[in-house]
Amino acid sequence: QVQLVESGGGLVQAGGSLKLSCKASGIIFSSYAMGWYRQAPGKQREMVATITRGGNTNYADSVKARFTISRDNAENTVYLQMNSLKPEDTAVYYCNVKRLTSYDLWGQGTQVTVSS
User: Fold this and answer.
1) Contact 91, 26 (CB under 8 A)
2) Which of 17, 56, 60, 108 is spaced 20 to 30 Å from 68 by Cα?
């Protein structure tokens, strides 16, 4: 069974930074593209950033130049460095295996709250 555990969220002021971590188990981590997704109250879930097994990255326009996704295959962990945070970044952040997102299976996520 695939297990994904997000951590690192919290409350920060606008302009601050956070680094999220996602520890994976139950998969050959290095074989899969991974992604970070977020969902704000009353809004649909959206893709934030993805990273392929080869390290190529893709970002939502709203976070480009502010967020950086990375992975450490030795630790089975994907990270999301978030800088210059804005109140509109407030959401629950989830990680997932990119190819499995259509199955609508998600973990607990980690809450990020950005105050103005």
Assistant:
1) no
2) 108
Read off the DSSP letter of residue 52. -
Dig out the tokens for 47 from the structure: 């893709």
pLDDT in tens, 24-73: 999 899 999 999 999 999 999 999 999 999 999 999 999 999 999 999 99
The residue whose two tokens read 């690192």 is 8
| pLDDT, tens digit, 9 for 90 and up, residues 77-115 | 999 999 999 999 999 999 999 998 888 889 999 999 999
**How large is the average pLDDT for residues 3-23?**
97
Q: What distance in Å separates the CA atoms of residue 34 and residue 68, rounded to the nearest whole number?
A: 13
Residues whose CB falls within 8 Å of the CB of residue 9, separated by 6 or more in sequence, listed in order: 18, 20, 92, 93, 109, 110, 111, 112, 113
Report the alpha-carbon distance of residue 82 to residue 105 in Å, rounded. 24
Integer Cα distance of 89 and 14 in angstroms: 9
